[in-house]
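Section 3.1: Structural characterization of target chains.
Under the original work plan, the team committed to producing a structural model for every single-chain target entering the pipeline before any wet-lab resources were allocated. The record below documents one such target. The sequence was received from the expression subgroup and is listed exactly as submitted; it comprises 396 residues.
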Amino acid sequence: MRNIFLLSICYFFTQSVEASINTEGFVSLSGGKSYFDGDSSSLNLNSDIFLSPVINIDEENIIYPVYSGYYRGVQDLKELAGGDVLVRKRMGHSISIKYVKSKDFNHTKPRLSYSMDYIKETKDESWGKGLFDYKTISIGVEFEQERPNATYTQSIDFFDVNYPNYSSLISKYSSIIDTTTYSELSKNAGKDVLNSRNLRFGFTLTKFPKNINVIYSFAFTYRNFYDQSVVNEYGYFKSDKRRDLLTEFGIDLVRSSKKINTGLNFNFCYLMSNQNSYDASKTKYIDNYYDYFLFSITPSLKVNFKNNGSFNYSFSYERLNYIDRLSQDANGNYLNSKIYQNFYVNNLTIKYPIKKDLMTFFSYSYQIVDSNTKYEATYRYNYTSGNLSLGFELLF
């Protein structure tokens, strides 16, 4: 797949020698600190880079090669393997290419991308050796139709997610566990249990009533964890493999003007999974362990200054309800209620120009998460966290 990706890039470039090229992008560099349950980290760096030499072949054919990268030296929380995990550092690189074929007001946009994300959970981990490092290869196409009163978009994407350093613990313990026990536990057990192949279908309708843009989005994502076996009520593995189906529905309301932009976002997600859980220490079996409903609402405000600076603020409330996952007390004892989490997130960013294409910015985010479960040996369900950064952004 990677060779196909590189050959495709070479083909597009060789076919576009006579085309005009306009480079777009930005680089940002900032210093910042993070806060987690009252403790602050040391000062560290964050950076982002985006580069796209837009290749205009003619009015109907445009190619968008893109490189993007990021580095997060400031620790933060990231959802990993079904829960929030505190991550010390993150870094990622992505290369992609999109081709836009336009005819009248219809557009076809095939795309291809490859990305690498590196995650360090501890100080002594080396880059490329992180347990949750992952690589993603994606190929897809988008169809867009512009009409006087609306724009319609349909998309289909296939993406493969691979965790090269992660493997199930049972696959490593054949020399420690006695032969009979190992044979019983390991039967049907996979090794690359986080790897998945995914297929996503998306639909978007954008309408323009008066001065408001209304965007309706709907998507299905089918995930095939081809080496993760389903757990049965006795704690053993079935021959069946894990399958997830994620349904997403969203509404975006955006009102724009020269001075003030306001927005309101509603989002709803429903995940169905056939994977279960067996807690050997409590001999407790839970059906459909990963199934959940999620609802979020996010109002936002942007004030544009005369000198191209801006003030941005958003507040997000998110409610996550697990359908069958039971809550636990601080000692791990199971209760009768199902787990829920409330997320309250504030984001503030101020940008101010130093020169025409050079901006300085200040950003601050603060998050409160509470839950009815208190057992947090594996994942964090209750915490406060924040990030503070000051830096520069160069546009070109």
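The chain has a mean pLDDT of 88.
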